[in-house]
Amino acid sequence: MSVTKRRLRQAAAVALVAVTALGAAAACGEAKPEAGAKPDKLIVDTFGEFGYEDLVKQYETANNIKIELRKTGDLGDYRNKLVRYLATGKGAGDVVALEEGIINEFKLNPANWVDLGQYASAGKSGEYLSWKWELGKTTDGKVIGFPTDVGSLAACYRRDLFEQAGMPFERDAVSASWPTWDKFIEVGLQYKAKTGKGMVDSLTSVTNAVLFQHTGDLFYDKDDNLYNPAVKPADRKPTDLIAANSPAVKAAWDTSVKIHNAGIAAKTATWSPEWSAGFKQGTFAVTMCPSWMLGIVKANSGDANSGKWDVAAVPGGSGNWGGSWLAVPAQSKYQSEAAKLADFLTNATSQVTAFKKSGPLPTNKTALASTDFTGYTNPYFNNAPTAKVFGESVKNIQPVHLGPRHGSVKEKAFEAALNALMSGQLNADEAWAKFLNDVPSQGAF
Amino acid sequence: MSLSATTAPPPAASPEQAPRKPRLAHRLARFDLKASPYLYIAPFFIIFGIFGLYPIIRTVWMSLHNWNLIAPDRRSFIGLQNYVDLLSDDYFWNAVRNTVGIFLLATIPQILLALFLANTLNRGLRWRTFFRMAILVPNVTSVAAVGIVFGTLFQRDFGVINWVLSLISVDAIDWRNTTWGSWTAISVMVDWRWTGYNALIFLAAMQAIPRDLYESAAIDGASRWRQLWSITLPMIRPTLIFVVIISTIGGLQLFTEPLIFSGDSLGGNLRQFQTVAMYMFEKGIETTTTAGYGAAVAGMLFLMIIVASVLNFLLIRKSVR
User: Fold this and answer.
1) Which of residues 72-131 of A touch B (CB under 8 A)?
2) Which CATH class is domain A41-150+323-374?
3) pLDDT digits (tens, 9 = 90+) for A249-268
4) How far is C-alpha A207 from the geometric centre of its chain's CA atoms?
5) Given pLDDT bands bounded at 50, 70 and 90, which one contains residue B176?
6) Class of A152-320+399-443 per CATH?
7) Distance of alpha carbon A24 from the chain centroid
């Protein structure tokens, strides 16, 4: 080997090691900006459709700040990302959305979150539905989330398909045809007789609606017990689970089984690819619509189906499915700026703008009362007076206590069992047993 | 041959010049001689240490704890309890069964097909180079893309596969909600991606077989089929076993395809295609309170892979002799 070649190699080796060392040093020594420094960019993490696109642009120009909106479609994926950010201490957005099914789990560790109480604009705590505001607080009174929306319930239906089936298709007539779930099944049987197809998308769509039309415990009791506290841990049987004795869970289950037996479900599991495609293809004619679902129905159905969907009253009375808060993770470098942004995104005017864009229903009382909101009709949904439909039922919503891992129990135990029933993998008794069997592992915290 | 490479390189400086004052160049040369080999291999070991060794040690450490992912104050040492629980966990064994089942369903046809392809490409084929390159193309695509595209093909209502099946009047198959349907769909994804890769490896091994063996066999009147059984297969046996080892390791770690096919970590309503890696993900990442348990699943997966590799190693040693 020639000398020059060796020199070259020597230099290359030294350079390589130096670069590696430098990289390691750089990874450790990331400088923290001073408190109150002007942020280069704020990141907002949301899932589903929050309708923040225009609001963010508006805030950018008004405050000369860059904002990045990161959207994740599916709540489950979103939660996993958030967990990863919190576990590693970096990566989270400066403002993140927390849904009602997951917020309680995150509330268990208040250290991960900034107390927004200190940054809230004057009088903010009194502006919202009081139960909604309270749910955004930890047990020791720290405000970790500003309320965004509630998932007030309605039923989305395809007027064109109802019309083709020779059934009443105007929204008032449809609402009147299904005051109860039993009547809903009758309508479904009619639709099936005329078209040979299932009317409602899935069992879990109905289940989620029924679950929140009742008050009382769901999967946990008020003290977050999974089992009846009177039973000693050694003697616990599946029948001692709070879930096994909850009237709401029982009602939701029984209604679903009835619908399954009547054969009026199109058997497209909610959130599955068949479901998403089914919106365009008209596989089903009805899906239960919490307010935030409007944006998802629209996104899945596409512009070609504009005007074909309409919004009617939900069978069985008002209830709440979903709804979120905006929180600021303690790892954010620009906490006060982030809190200001969260404050802005949840104020009365912003909530109305977001509602018009994607459907999340305001929780701000001023927003709910404003004529800008109440007069709104949704052009995509055949000019349905969505504000009126959802806004009226919002006052009747009773807060339901959801335990720390409510979302996980609901999705991985309850809905999985119902989907297994729907697809014919299990019969009703087997599915119920499977549900109870899975509750303890999914609900433990 | 490989032995000589690991012995020390020949001395660079001659000892006769030793009494003189060592010059800088001389010292640099000595440094180069002694240290530079370590510097050359350092990048690998540094990167391996950071991204390989540290996570392994950390995972083992976590698996001995009741580990909360997002609340550092709620972690406690519990020894081997996670492993004890794991052994009586039905869902864990279900995942093991699924993983082995999908592995067999995917790998056996895959190796047969790869052998067939390699054997065909080994002949005097027109456009040979083109075909040899083309079979590797699926391997270049991203796993996630494969999962999404095949997930669409295997849809129940509007999937292409069910449409094709309907042409020969087969009823729509609910690929996701049946055990065999889901295993088949995932196996097809795995095979689509890896058959060509394995075929290329087989082809390389086949090319190394001396031509005259075939010539003399042909003179003796051996058919092509006989040549394949009596010459090709015995000669590529070490390669065959290498491919089996690599497929085993890959198969046991199967994750992305079923995860995307499922849409969540459950792998179907009844966990009918939840693999061990997915169960690890469910317990270790999705459930914040059971990260230690998830780490224990990772530990068991590690053990399973070691056992499988040792078995394969014993086989290979026997066959090479």
Assistant:
1) 74, 76, 79-80, 83-84, 86-87, 105-106, 108-109, 111-112
2) alpha beta
3) 999 999 999 999 999 999 99
4) 15
5) very high
6) alpha beta
7) 39
